[in-house]
Amino acid sequence: MNKILLLSLLFFLVYLSLEALHHNRLVRKIPHRLAVTGIRGKSSITRLIAAGLRQSGFRVMAKTTGSRPVIIYPDGHEEEIKRPGKPSILEQKKLVREAAQQKVDYLVSEMMSIQPECLQAESHYLLQPELLAVSNIRPDHLEALGESKEDIALALTAAFRRKITVYIPEEELFPVLKEGAERKRVEISPARKEVSSEQLIDELPYPEFEPNIRLALTILRACGLNDEVIAQGLKKVKPDSGCPRMWEKSFDDLGKKVYLVSLFAANDPQSSLEAMLKIMDRTGWRWRTVYGLLCFRRDRGDRTRQWVDFLVEKWREGILANQRSDAQGRLELAGLALEGPGATAAGRYLKKKLKDQPSGPPLFIVQSSSPEAVLRDILTHFSSISGEKDFLPQPGPLVFGLGNIVGFGQEMIDYLERKANAVEL
């Protein structure tokens, strides 16, 4: 019996060695490999880089694992990745094989991993990138990455492999990243603020964060592209399905309409607040009344806690208020609807913590389950407590979809795609 076990183990080790050799041969057939890690914006950065390279005439394959995991082929068409079970970093092996068969010049892949051990395996063995982009350091996945930004930055250094160049926005360059780079003999190149990335914001077909554009611009220059070609490519980029989008939905029987902006995919509170302020600025603050629809997930209790603590902090700081203000960096949020598992408990917590805050928000616990019913409930509930005067001026109230895209967030997006009118942001 022991002899059989020993032979089985030996056979398995030989098999793994041959698999590794075969995979490494496929990796070497891809001249240039770029990977994108970080907390927020990975899919956007991946798409921006791929679009710039494609504009320059390179054969490019890209993979994003954002709201919907897709492979972007050299001709620009996309195919959604069908997963029979939970996501696995072994997808990256199939990606490398497909890229080698397609004879691409560049492979640009969003990294999938959260845990440092998996992140290391994905970088060192599966993708083996020569350039690595780190989008940003934001509090999220706290159970896996740690509570502080320093902990999260340290966890992300697991993706650093020797003799690669790491690109990161200069404001995200924590000391622990520099220390990790020195220890692993990695060069870090900060993407510094400049005029060009600011100018490109208005040229993209959708709202995008300046640091994402700046990071892509820096990497594309490092690949030898000039700014004119880069700008032409970025203007053609197809945004991720989770990017900010807006719809107008009319309820004729109520005599009202509502506008909803999907920020469900932003996930973490700070990124969501920045996106709300950016969109309000982009649209000219023409909405008199703004509400939030915050969706929770049963399996993301850490994010629920993060959101409620963030809301308490920002309302106490005066960053959020329930009355209109044009103060820089201040957002009017006239009411907040809470949806999903834990919504009732979160509402009680917020009311308790904000009972002494005159600018605290009216809260509404969503009971309906369908997207249309939820929007109706938001309209009727908040109009009943604030008075019809807030709903009379056109263009109508604005609702930001927040929290999580998985689950109800995606249901709301799918419903609006079918039943509402898309509005350009």
Q: What's a concise summary of this model?
A:
Helix content is 43%, strand content 18%. It is built from 15 helices and 17 strands.
Characterise this structure:
The chain is an alpha/beta fold and 425 residues long. It has two domains: 226 residues, UDP-N-acetylmuramoyl-L-alanine:D-glutamate ligase (3-Layer(aba) Sandwich); 179 residues, Alpha-Beta Complex (Protein-Tyrosine Phosphatase, Chain A), CATH 3.90.190. The chain is built from 15 helices and 17 strands. It has an eight-stranded mixed beta sheet, with helices on both faces. Strands 15-14-11-16-10-9-17 form a seven-stranded mixed beta sheet, sandwiched between helices. A hairpin with a 5-residue loop joins strand 2 and strand 3. Helix 6 packs parallel to helix 7 and helix 12 packs parallel to helix 13. The relative contact order is 0.11.
Give the helices and strands, then pairings:
Layout lengths: L1 H27 L3 E6 L4 H14 L4 E5 L5 E3 L5 E3 L10 H11 L4 E5 L5 H12 L3 E4 L7 H4 L3 H8 L8 E5 L5 H9 L3 E5 L3 H7 L8 H13 L4 H8 L10 E7 L4 E7 L6 H14 L7 E6 L5 H17 L2 E2 L9 E2 L2 E5 L3 H11 L9 E3 L5 H16 L11 E5 L5 H12 L1 E3 L2
Parallel strand pairs: 1-5, 1-6, 2-5, 6-7, 7-8, 10-16, 11-14, 11-16, 12-13, 14-15
Antiparallel strand pairs: 2-3, 3-4, 9-10, 9-17
